[in-house]
Amino acid sequence: MNLKQHTIQKPVTVSGVGLHTGVIASMTFQPAPVNHGYKFQRIDLPGQPIVDADVDYVVDVSRGTTLEHNGARVHTVEHTLAALVGLQIDNCLIQLDGPEPPIMDGSSIKFIEALDDAGLVEQNALRNYFEVPSEVRYRDRDRDVEIAALPLDDYRVTVMVDYNSKVLSSQHASLNDITLFKQEIAKSRTFCFLHELEALFKANLIKGGDLSNAIVIVDREFEDGELDHLSSLLGKPRVSVVPGKGILNNIDLHYANEPARHKLLDVVGDLALVGRPLKAQILAARPGHAANVEMAKKIKKLMRETQKPSIPVYDPKIPPVMDIKQISNLLAHRYPFQLIDKIIHMDESSVVGIKNVTMNEPFFTGHFPENPVMPGVLQIEAMAQTGGILVMSTVPDPENYWAYLAAIENCRFRRNVVPGDTVIFKCEFMAPMKRGIAKMHGQAWVAGQLVMESDMTASLVRKK
Asked: Which domain holds residue 159?
């Protein structure tokens, strides 16, 4: 699984009819910044409202998952979201000029192909995984549906379907490696049973459905004239069935267990609505959109309950965003005042830097030599250098600028920093930069404990 966040390199568009609304629409995947997540945008509506891909905004699960936010609806989002999750894309704006993504062939593969064509780009931020800490379980006894999420340092999904049908027997599907989603799951198409067709049409659903974008499983005998009626419903000159094959118009399946694989695809797409990539083992028995959404709500509730303060995690095994050479190319500081060893995260509004404090620091020879403590002013300097890197990153030619510390406010030192400590500095913009002036809030932690914090003002000055 990816360590860092990804988006796409360029916009890419797909077009087609919506499965349930029957409205023809174009959908454009747009690159998005770090921590943007998945958002839909109805560009056909006044104000072009944004619809966050969040389980809190699910309003309907009738044969698909529908979101409503900021006065706008987007129908049948699960196949689109599954494609993004399957390619481990974290940040994407999905623009729609209609109410529903195109159904394409009823799977996610056309979206996968379009996103592959756009190309992926790694971003300078770690993925914000939610690792399920303990078993989460959803059960609907009336429908005999059960979904469980178990702790696992990976993302795996197993699905079992059983419709008590002579035509469609019990099936299982598993995804044990997210990198295999495109190969093993993405081509699996949506399906329904013949006995459901009439009811779905009467419920004002599947207006865009036909045999090119869905598999219809024949689960009963035909009456005289019924094939002609089905042909009319599906907009086909003639539909047929070979006795014993069980698929309307005798469409070949991509896999013997394609229905189970498509249900797995739906689970992946619906669980994307928790808002963060997951690390968990998902086990689902006879899932549907209603159950998937309820499970997503349970996981998000647990996420909120276990959410820790926003302390950056430092794993020295992960390559840094900027190493000491790159820092030296950006900042003018040199020994003994170059105080930041690496940058482990940076986006448009925040930066995280690392300072490894050793007994060999030159200031320990004169600052409490019998009781070595890192001077507070140097802690502020290290924090300012971290923030300076963020400020310098806002211009395309940082080599032509100086970043000066202009003000310090609300500074507090919580505990001593001593040799052997690894200090994690985080600086965030408090407001957008204006005329080269940046206001930042900085914090520093050692072993998960806050050691100091301060508000700082920096001035970006062009070199003469």
From this structure: 4-186+259-307
Q: Which two tokens stand for residue 168?
A: 């469609």
- Annotated binding-site positions: 79, 262, 266
Strand runs (DSSP E) across 3-97, as ranges? 4-8, 12-17, 24-31, 38-42, 50-52, 58-60, 66-69, 72-74, 92-96
C-alpha span between 42 and 51 (Å, rounded): 8
- Mark which of 242, 272, 307 sits at the end of a domain: 307
- From the annotation, which residues make up the binding site for Zn(2+)? 79, 262, 266
User: Catalytic site residues?
Assistant: 289, 367
- Token pair 């992926």 is found at 120
Query: Does a structural domain hold residue 313?
Result: no
Contact (Cβ atoms closer than 8 angstroms) between residue 56 and residue 275: no
Length of the chain: 464
* Mean pLDDT in consecutive groups of 10 residues from the start of the chain, 464 residues: 94 91 93 94 97 97 92 96 98 97 94 97 89 95 94 97 76 96 95 69 59 66 60 57 56 86 97 97 96 97 81 88 92 92 90 95 89 95 95 90 93 95 95 90 94 95 88
Query: How far is the CA of 210 from the CAs of 77, 105, 214, 227, in angstroms?
Result: 19, 10, 6, 14
Answer yes or no: are the C-beta atoms of 400 and 353 closer than 8 Å: no
pTM strictly above 0.90: no
| Whole-number Å distance between alpha carbons of 94 and 26 | 10
